[in-house]
Target: YbbR-like domain-containing protein
Amino acid sequence: MLKRILHIFRNFLFGTANREFLIFLFFLALSGAFWLTISLNDTYEQDIAVPVRLVGVPRQVVITDDLPDTIKVTVRDKGFTMLTYLYGNEIRPIQFKYSSYANEQTMKGVVPVADLQKALYAQLYNSSKIVAIKTDGLEFGFNYGQHKRVPIRLNGDIKFNRSFYLAHSRFWPEYVTVYGSKKQLDSIQYVTTQYLKMSNLEDTVYQIVNLKKIRGVKIKPMQVKVGLYPDIMTEESMEVKIEAINMPAGKMLRTFPSKVKVSFVVGASQYRNIHPEDFKVVADYNDFGNTPSDKCTIYIKKAPKYIRHLRLSIDQVDYLIEENG
Model:
């Protein structure tokens, strides 16, 4: 049985038509190899990612602004050489010693471009030419542990379903540690999250978020957990007494009515903490004292910050000015 199968396969493989197809495949592969050889013998320019490392950092030193993880280097050479750079292990991380570049006066370190080129050429073949180095600069900042703890603030656009709003947010941890120069630490009162955008939410959300980087400052940790707590919106109202302000000595204002309804939208959980005393509705004598009329204008001077769509049922009332005593 096996011999029969081998016989059929041999006849199929070495039949006239199949033999011609195999010859075609051989010359196709030969021409492809010839084309590839010619192509790889041409000169190309290619961007190569080169890892960068800062080594020899003393234990008491905190790096507040590290060197970039990688830099892009444009190299010119033959195609064969480029293949070894891209798919071989020819390019190793470039290491710079902390002690060679750290400046104790400025608390910064700068690696000159000449040193970077020297380290790069040490890994390249003699035929390779560096055309460009794409980097904003090789600088690092450091200090000796000066730090402070600061709170976190949410940065973003958080939108809930029409009936809900963001009642409050919470972070874990609530504070992070920032390391930097004294001047920088004095200016930092809080750190923010990277821009966070969410929409159409209607339930509590927990998410891991990154913090926004500050140049020259190390933030630890750089990731925190945030909780976003929605609350359902409800429209409420309260009767608030009208108060007179800027009244001359010896005069008293009576308004009709003496109270006015204040309407507002607030979270259902926050409504129980709101009282009429949290509002202040006033009639200002400076607005109507010199131009007497039948009515005076009233407006809201104070209200809780977390309520929305605040309005009065009326904005003018009848009044009477009386003499005291």
